[in-house]
Specification:
This protein is α/β, with parallel strands linked by helices. It has eight helices and ten strands. The radius of gyration is 23 Å and the shape is elongated.
Amino acid sequence: MALLTEEDVRRMSDNGARGPVVVNRGEVLTPGARDWLRAHRVEVVHPQGEAAEHPPGAPPPAKYQTLFGAALNEKPEHMTHLKGNTLVFKDHPRIAFRGWIDALEAELLLAQQAAAEAGLPALEAELGEALDFARRCIRFDVLDEPVGPIRLCGYTAEQLREVSHYPDKHLGQPHFLPGRADGPALLAVNRARTVARQTELAAYAAFRDADGGVTRDDIILGLNRLSSLLWILMCKIKGGHYAKA
């Protein structure tokens, strides 16, 4: 068994500037090292989900782990699950991002309801597809699943960008500013679109690194194209593309 001291973890994380600290099988953090990691909020990673070697005669492993090296047997109310038994503070950017996904789902459901009440079944179905994609974003995050090729309501990622930028060319409806006379369905989709934009910003905050790069550009792209889809749906409502039931 190898002990990792405070000096070791300082060096491994470049004195807190880089992180995370990798603890391999057979390595154990000293109390001083854990205190330093906790104070500097440096993430501790066990390769391939391995736990550090459990020394003979030591107490059983704690029920929960934190990104800054703490081991806990009870989940504090101010913390929540990031993944598996890993806990983070509730204001962690990944948790904030998941909260925005919740808000986006709620708005899409209300938009679906407005479409149904307006007698627009095709719009209701397209919003259902948008809702399904929003819900899958949680899987993309929690299970580290790739988004894969984007196709929403028959549009590829490239087509979503093209049509949303040039609706006059593709839909016969120029860009417009929504007004209160546009009706509940259009206004509900517009509200969902603005929440999709906020969710995209939350995703960037959740997945950016210290240099401004991102680890999940596929999720960010997906949310960007989702908001493009919602603008396309607004243009289709405005341009009278939906037949009433």
